[in-house]
Amino acid sequence: MASYTLAVNAVQMRNEFKIPIVGLDIAGPENGYPAEDHKAAFQFAGEHFLNKTIHAGEGFGPQSINEAITKGLAERIGHGFHIYSSNRIHGSKSEAEKQRYTENLVNFVGAQRITLEVCLTSNLQTMPELQHVSHHPCGRMIADNLSVVFATDNRTVSNTTLTKELRLAVDAFQLTPAQLKRVVVAGFKRSFMRVAYPTKRKYLERVIALYESIEAKYNIRS
To answer: 58 an active-site residue?
Structure first.
């Protein structure tokens, strides 16, 4: 009831008071706190054209990501760390069924261009099983051409910046100039900007033009 009321009030403030609210998010522990509990809130947000992002696949497995998409109607997924982790699927599925589940999930996320907000420093700090940034599944996400962007998650707590996150990714995964450009541009493409779509398109065109001017200045071929 609380999350539904929040969604209703958010839409009202946006419509009546012109407050530039861009989206609805849910974060916190996933295990025992499913996105389905907030289905009504996210359904209302979707019906009123409010963007939706859900933290999923960090503290739980692929099923959490699936639920965020199917129950929460998320356009972006915070973290998505365990999108490939078939061993974290709960229930009586066989190993083959678990593997097929993750493959179908990855294909769906890719085809629908659902964006994964990767937070390298935050994951290194909160996930003991991640011993080195190079072990992060982000490299595989990018290789699979998923819609990947980088985020700080909690800039002050993790003591990081987006520039640091990009530097970490480039060094750890040996990103090519083309891969780096795709990730950076995706951040602008998939942003929740509270402007008319033609305005956002023009803004994106300026961003790409600036990026390409920097490439030309340093003779970088993407």
So the answer is: yes
